[in-house]
Amino acid sequence: MATETATKWVIDPMHSEVQFKVKHLVISTVSGFFKSFAGELLTDGDDFENAEIDFTLDIDSIDTNQSQRDEHLKSAEFFDAATYPKISFKSTSFTKTGDDEFALKGDLTIKDVTKPVSLDVEFGGSAADFYGNTKAGFEISGKINRKDFGLTWDGVTEAGSIVVGEDIKLLINVQFAKQA
């Protein structure tokens, strides 16, 4: 991307959220959030197609509304936050697929494993806030298999039910602020 025309956008964490969902005992879904994250995208002017996207989130900020479970997720049995404190994503393509729809592809790194992922993006639009700042909103969704990233802990109940599902649904709502 030509730096002369590149526009930088930075995530506004006050108006963004990173949520995930996973099956528990195959019968219900547990939701969680990461409360601390950062990201930016570079665009060619105000056109988002082909934007370059970088995103990180802090494992220690995981919140499933149950502190014992959160501590287990931070432990070496799952994310190993002490050794690998961040999850990162770097885009490889951002392609328009419809009026307000994009396909986002990139490399996701969890622990020491990097794999390509594909995510769906819906552009919510852009608007000026009360202070004259230009904001752009996106909803990103997709699914990954946790075992692909070395999150292989398994538990089985006495009755033979799987405790944690393999597929993780991602739902990320982000608002970016255009930088001057």
UniProtKB/TrEMBL annotation:
SMART domains the record matches: YceI (SM00867)
Pfam families: YceI
SUPFAM superfamilies (UniProt xref): YceI-like
Lineage: Bacteria, Pseudomonadati, Bacteroidota, Sphingobacteriia, Sphingobacteriales
Origin: domain of life: Bacteria
Lipid/polyisoprenoid-binding YceI-like domain segment(s): 8-177
Entry-linked InterPro entries: Lipid/polyisoprenoid-bd_YceI, TTHA0802/YceI-like_sf
Source organism per UniProt: Mucilaginibacter pineti
Name of the molecule in the record: Polyisoprenoid-binding protein YceI
